[in-house]
Protein backbone atom coordinates (compact mmCIF):
# COMPACT_ATOMS: atom_id res chain seq x y z
CA UNK A 1 0.00 0.00 0.00
CA UNK A 2 1.33 3.41 -0.98
CA UNK A 3 1.74 6.30 1.39
CA UNK A 4 -0.86 8.78 0.35
CA UNK A 5 -3.76 10.93 1.34
CA UNK A 6 -6.85 12.65 -0.06
CA UNK A 7 -7.63 16.35 0.20
CA UNK A 8 -9.95 18.87 -1.46
CA UNK A 9 -8.72 20.09 -4.83
CA UNK A 10 -7.12 23.52 -4.97
CA UNK A 11 -7.00 25.96 -7.91
CA UNK A 12 -3.32 25.13 -8.45
CA UNK A 13 -4.32 21.46 -9.02
CA UNK A 14 -6.53 21.97 -12.06
CA UNK A 15 -3.84 21.58 -14.73
CA UNK A 16 -2.70 18.31 -13.16
CA UNK A 17 -6.30 17.08 -12.82
CA UNK A 18 -6.81 17.73 -16.54
CA UNK A 19 -3.55 15.95 -17.39
CA UNK A 20 -4.54 12.94 -15.25
CA UNK A 21 -7.98 12.80 -16.85
CA UNK A 22 -6.55 12.91 -20.35
CA UNK A 23 -3.82 10.33 -19.65
CA UNK A 24 -6.27 8.01 -17.90
CA UNK A 25 -8.94 8.24 -20.59
CA UNK A 26 -6.38 7.63 -23.33
CA UNK A 27 -5.11 4.52 -21.54
CA UNK A 28 -8.32 3.11 -20.06
CA UNK A 29 -10.77 3.92 -22.85
CA UNK A 30 -8.61 3.33 -25.93
CA UNK A 31 -10.64 0.22 -26.82
CA UNK A 32 -13.98 1.77 -25.87
CA UNK A 33 -13.94 5.15 -27.59
CA UNK A 34 -12.83 6.19 -31.09
CA UNK A 35 -9.11 6.90 -31.14
CA UNK A 36 -9.48 10.23 -32.94
CA UNK A 37 -11.87 11.44 -30.22
CA UNK A 38 -9.33 10.65 -27.50
CA UNK A 39 -6.49 12.11 -29.57
CA UNK A 40 -8.39 15.37 -30.08
CA UNK A 41 -9.32 16.00 -26.45
CA UNK A 42 -7.94 19.38 -25.45
CA UNK A 43 -6.12 19.44 -22.12
CA UNK A 44 -6.52 23.23 -21.80
CA UNK A 45 -10.30 22.92 -22.26
CA UNK A 46 -10.43 20.19 -19.61
CA UNK A 47 -8.40 22.40 -17.26
CA UNK A 48 -10.88 25.26 -17.72
CA UNK A 49 -13.75 22.95 -16.76
CA UNK A 50 -11.89 21.76 -13.66
CA UNK A 51 -10.94 25.31 -12.74
CA UNK A 52 -14.62 26.24 -12.69
CA UNK A 53 -15.51 23.11 -10.69
CA UNK A 54 -12.84 23.83 -8.09
CA UNK A 55 -13.15 27.62 -7.83
CA UNK A 56 -16.90 28.03 -8.29
CA UNK A 57 -18.76 24.79 -7.61
CA UNK A 58 -22.52 25.01 -8.18
CA UNK A 59 -23.15 24.29 -4.49
CA UNK A 60 -21.63 23.31 -1.16
CA UNK A 61 -22.09 19.58 -1.80
CA UNK A 62 -20.30 19.62 -5.17
CA UNK A 63 -16.79 18.42 -4.46
CA UNK A 64 -13.54 17.66 -6.22
CA UNK A 65 -11.05 15.63 -4.19
CA UNK A 66 -7.50 14.71 -5.17
CA UNK A 67 -5.34 11.75 -4.20
CA UNK A 68 -1.71 12.48 -3.40
CA UNK A 69 1.13 9.95 -3.37
CA UNK A 70 3.88 10.75 -0.91
CA UNK A 71 7.50 9.91 -1.66
CA UNK A 72 10.57 12.16 -1.78
CA UNK A 73 8.12 14.42 -3.60
CA UNK A 74 4.34 14.48 -3.52
CA UNK A 75 2.44 13.66 -6.71
CA UNK A 76 -1.21 14.21 -7.61
CA UNK A 77 -2.26 10.76 -8.85
CA UNK A 78 -6.04 10.78 -9.09
CA UNK A 79 -9.25 12.63 -8.36
CA UNK A 80 -12.94 12.21 -7.64
CA UNK A 81 -15.78 14.60 -8.42
CA UNK A 82 -19.35 14.38 -7.19
CA UNK A 83 -22.46 16.41 -6.53
CA UNK A 84 -26.19 16.06 -6.03
CA UNK A 85 -27.79 13.87 -8.69
CA UNK A 86 -29.12 15.98 -11.54
CA UNK A 87 -30.39 15.36 -15.08
CA UNK A 88 -26.99 13.93 -16.10
CA UNK A 89 -27.46 11.13 -13.54
CA UNK A 90 -30.80 10.08 -15.03
CA UNK A 91 -31.37 7.31 -17.54
CA UNK A 92 -33.12 8.20 -20.81
CA UNK A 93 -36.84 8.86 -20.26
CA UNK A 94 -36.42 8.59 -16.49
CA UNK A 95 -38.60 11.10 -14.59
CA UNK A 96 -36.75 14.09 -13.14
CA UNK A 97 -37.56 12.99 -9.58
CA UNK A 98 -36.61 9.34 -10.09
CA UNK A 99 -33.45 9.47 -7.97
CA UNK A 100 -34.63 11.73 -5.16
CA UNK A 101 -32.95 14.47 -3.16
CA UNK A 102 -30.77 12.16 -1.05
CA UNK A 103 -28.76 10.86 -4.02
CA UNK A 104 -25.26 11.99 -4.92
CA UNK A 105 -23.76 11.34 -8.36
CA UNK A 106 -20.13 10.51 -9.00
CA UNK A 107 -19.09 12.23 -12.20
CA UNK A 108 -15.44 11.19 -12.13
CA UNK A 109 -13.30 8.78 -10.13
CA UNK A 110 -9.95 8.32 -11.83
CA UNK A 111 -6.47 7.24 -10.81
CA UNK A 112 -3.74 7.56 -13.41
CA UNK A 113 -2.91 3.99 -14.52
CA UNK A 114 0.78 4.20 -13.55
CA UNK A 115 -0.33 4.88 -9.94
CA UNK A 116 -3.03 2.22 -9.88
CA UNK A 117 -3.37 -0.63 -7.39
CA UNK A 118 -1.77 1.42 -4.61
CA UNK A 119 -4.94 2.25 -2.63
CA UNK A 120 -5.57 5.71 -4.10
CA UNK A 121 -8.96 4.84 -5.58
CA UNK A 122 -10.10 3.33 -2.29
CA UNK A 123 -8.96 6.41 -0.37
CA UNK A 124 -10.78 8.70 -2.81
CA UNK A 125 -13.96 6.64 -2.52
CA UNK A 126 -13.79 6.43 1.30
CA UNK A 127 -13.20 10.19 1.65
CA UNK A 128 -16.09 10.86 -0.74
CA UNK A 129 -18.44 8.59 1.23
CA UNK A 130 -17.53 10.38 4.47
CA UNK A 131 -18.37 13.75 2.88
CA UNK A 132 -21.60 12.38 1.36
CA UNK A 133 -22.73 11.18 4.77
CA UNK A 134 -21.88 14.55 6.36
CA UNK A 135 -24.01 16.21 3.66
CA UNK A 136 -26.97 13.93 4.33
CA UNK A 137 -26.86 11.83 1.17
CA UNK A 138 -28.11 8.28 1.62
CA UNK A 139 -27.39 6.81 -1.82
CA UNK A 140 -24.83 7.31 -4.58
CA UNK A 141 -24.93 6.57 -8.30
CA UNK A 142 -22.24 6.42 -10.98
CA UNK A 143 -22.35 5.74 -14.71
CA UNK A 144 -19.64 3.41 -16.03
CA UNK A 145 -18.92 2.17 -19.52
CA UNK A 146 -20.09 -1.42 -19.88
CA UNK A 147 -16.70 -2.29 -21.33
CA UNK A 148 -14.76 -0.65 -18.48
CA UNK A 149 -14.13 -3.81 -16.48
CA UNK A 150 -11.62 -2.15 -14.14
CA UNK A 151 -14.07 0.50 -12.90
CA UNK A 152 -16.92 -1.98 -12.64
CA UNK A 153 -14.77 -4.43 -10.67
CA UNK A 154 -13.50 -1.68 -8.36
CA UNK A 155 -16.97 -0.34 -7.56
CA UNK A 156 -18.69 -3.72 -7.21
CA UNK A 157 -15.94 -4.84 -4.83
CA UNK A 158 -16.84 -1.77 -2.75
CA UNK A 159 -20.50 -2.82 -2.61
CA UNK A 160 -21.92 -1.02 -5.64
CA UNK A 161 -24.33 -2.87 -7.94
CA UNK A 162 -26.16 -2.17 -11.21
CA UNK A 163 -29.54 -0.56 -10.61
CA UNK A 164 -30.99 -1.69 -13.94
CA UNK A 165 -30.57 1.65 -15.73
CA UNK A 166 -28.60 1.89 -18.94
CA UNK A 167 -27.86 4.39 -21.65
CA UNK A 168 -25.63 4.78 -24.68
CA UNK A 169 -23.44 7.81 -25.25
CA UNK A 170 -23.16 8.99 -28.82
CA UNK A 171 -19.44 9.51 -29.30
CA UNK A 172 -18.86 10.72 -32.85
CA UNK A 173 -21.64 8.49 -34.27
CA UNK A 174 -20.56 5.51 -32.18
CA UNK A 175 -22.94 4.41 -29.43
CA UNK A 176 -21.02 3.47 -26.28
CA UNK A 177 -23.18 1.64 -23.71
CA UNK A 178 -23.09 2.56 -20.06
CA UNK A 179 -24.76 1.15 -16.99
CA UNK A 180 -25.57 2.89 -13.75
CA UNK A 181 -24.29 1.53 -10.47
CA UNK A 182 -25.64 2.49 -7.07
CA UNK A 183 -24.87 2.00 -3.39
CA UNK A 184 -26.36 2.99 -0.03
CA UNK A 185 -24.07 5.38 1.85
CA UNK A 186 -26.10 6.42 4.87
CA UNK A 187 -24.67 5.40 8.22
CA UNK A 188 -27.88 3.46 8.93
CA UNK A 189 -27.40 1.46 5.73
CA UNK A 190 -23.74 0.89 6.52
CA UNK A 191 -24.35 -0.20 10.14
CA UNK A 192 -27.83 -1.68 10.71
CA UNK A 193 -27.14 -2.04 14.47
CA UNK A 194 -27.25 1.74 15.05
UniProtKB/TrEMBL annotation:
Keyword terms, alphabetized: Acyltransferase, Transferase
Gene3D superfamilies documented for this protein: 3.40.630.30
SUPFAM superfamilies: Acyl-CoA N-acyltransferases (Nat) (SSF55729)
InterPro entries in alphabetical order: Acyl_CoA_acyltransferase (IPR016181), Bact_Acetyltransf (IPR050832), GNAT_dom (IPR000182)
A Pfam family per the record: Acetyltransf_1
One annotated GO molecular function: acyltransferase activity, transferring groups other than amino-acyl groups
Protein known as: GNAT family N-acetyltransferase
UniProt organism field: Micromonospora endophytica
